Amino acid sequence: MLRKYILQFTQDYLEFRLPEFFSIASSFNIPVKIDDQLSSKQNPVLVVEVPSEECLRKIANRTVLLRNVIEYWGSGKTIDEVKSEIENLPKEITEPYVKNEKTSFSVKFHSSNHNIDLQEKVIKIDNFLESYPINGKVNLKNPEKVFHLIECYKDKRETSIPILDRMYFGRFICDSDRNSIKDFHLSKRKVIGNTSMDAELSFIISNISQSKSGGFIYDPFVGTGSLLVACAKHGAFVSGCDIDKKLLSGRGKSSRKGQKWRDRDETVRGNLKQYGLDNRYFDVLIADTSKQAMWNIKDTMFDAIVTDPPYGIREPTVKSGNNETKLSNDQTKMVYVMTDILSDLLLFAAKYLHIGGRLVFWLPVYREEYVLENIPENKAMQCIFNCEQILNSKVSRRLLTYQKTRAFQPDTDNNVHFGKNHYEESFRDRINTNIIGFLTFE
Amino acid sequence: MKLLTHNMLTSNIIKGVTKGYPLKIECQQIEIVETEFNKEFLEKMIPKIDYGVLCRAADQIGHLGDLPKVLPETSDYNEEFMKELHRVLLKVEIKEGNLVCPETGRKFPVSNGIPNMLLNEEEV
């Protein structure tokens, strides 16, 4: 029989929650059914049915946008409604936890869309326990059983006074992997660049890309490898390339405040080594992603491609070539137009991803101009998620996720189509004034 | 640079080069690095690689070891074979040296384990 669980999500990255959760679930082949009637539409609370508690623990152990998992006991508009639902549950679900007088317990209260002060919280918990008594001694510090009482209110923008949408009660099962974010914070990272992706987003991207043990992941604009750190943590072998020779070899100016030059071990490998993940380091290459002919790959090679392409917003975009001005060293660089970056990326994925493999990358957009037709199309690739992260009133970036649906067919799949292309002109000029300073890592 | 990467690279980004595969290896320094052993990954890789090129490259740099020169039947993928394959594909690392285009002799330097595949203006 399927069991019901309450998922409590964070308030952040609204549009990313379900893609993250369901990407992990499907990579473990765990069927998850959302109970629409019991879930709260305007709150980060979802009621789902899964085959077992073990399944949910497995997913929770990977996700960062989930807070915790609660075994669903009951819900309703009033305490009485919740109580009557609990009393209808099979006894073996509740009794071992509420009848045992010897074990200690605590009840935690959360509210969503409405702030409730500590005193009021205590009253609410007391009221609930009066109606539904739990045996055992209360222990707030180190309880043997934890219960959660959750109140979800209607969206504040729709009502002038707080209106309770639904309350929930259940038994705590587990936390998520959210705590790892702290350990992987960029301030403690060995190597950072001007555009290093923060730990939370890197984990989300890695999860959406379905990285796992035995997987092979490639970042064609690897930079300092911040996305790869997350993918390697999730078990995959990681590889990448970048045109920036100095960055990859741990030379040149440091991006860290108060440090002038990079150390020689400030490399992608060095970054992984910091977390004991260098045994999943595969290779990085100094190469130009627009030169795909350098690959001699039989048919397919990668399980996922994850990247934050340099659209010339924070870093000048370059590819080697023979137009444009000579910058430095021995190699000529020319402007790598955004349209070309997108085309190269989709074609690379269409060719070299295994069927079912995913391409996950950021696309910055000018919000006023953005339409769905801006999303590039390729016949072998299906866009499955399109999640917006708003950066300011004018600019956002969208995390696009494509899945390869079939084997690459040169006759039909060798081009990338833009329904409406607004990246032709210098996107950098238009977007620059709105974004500079916003994404810079301090 | 690992031999699996060598297996996937060509020099036909150079103007006039038609195949550019396999690249020759000039090796100055080799390191054996600790890389996770993952059977699933290796099994997935076998049909994707050019096994003959892998063996010749490993042989050329003196690290073929006990890897059989002819790919065994799938049923004969025993533990010993997997370990050897793991070593050759993922543990042997070219630290310093060059990859050399078989047609033009153009050298792509490998420095601190990282190959540089960038070209100059006139080569593109």
SSE topology sketch:
The complex is a heterodimer of chains A (442) and B (124).
Chain A: E1 3-9, H1 17-27, E2 33-34, E3 45-50, H2 53-60, E4 66-76, H3 79-87, H4 91-98, E5 104-112, H5 118-131, E6 137-138, E7 145-153, E8 164-175, H6 180-183, H7 199-208, E9 216-219, H8 226-233, E10 237-242, H9 245-248, H10 268-273, E11 281-286, E12 302-307, E13 318-320, E14 333-335, H11 338-352, E15 353-366, E16 381-390, E17 395-404, H12 410-413, H13 427-435
Parallel strand pairs in A: 5-6, 5-7, 9-10, 9-12, 10-11, 12-15
Antiparallel strand pairs in A: 1-3, 1-4, 2-3, 4-8, 7-8, 13-14, 15-17, 16-17
Helix pairs in contact in A: 1-7, 7-8
Chain B: H1 3-8, E1 24-32, H2 39-45, H3 51-60, H4 79-91, E2 92-100, E3 107-111, E4 114-115
Antiparallel strand pairs in B: 1-2, 2-3, 3-4
Q: How much strand content do the residues of chain A show?
A: 25-35%
Average residue-wise pLDDT of chain B: 94
Q: What is the string of SSEs of chain A from the N terminus onward?
A: EHEEHEHHEHEEEHHEHEHHEEEEHEEEHH
What's the rounded overall pLDDT mean of chain A? 88
Gyration radius of chain A (Cα, Å) is 25 Å
Category from helices, strands and their pairing of chain A? alpha/beta
- Biggest interface between chains: A-B, 43 and 37 residues
- In the CATH hierarchy, the third-tier topology of the largest domain in chain A is known as Rossmann fold
Number of strands of chain B: 4
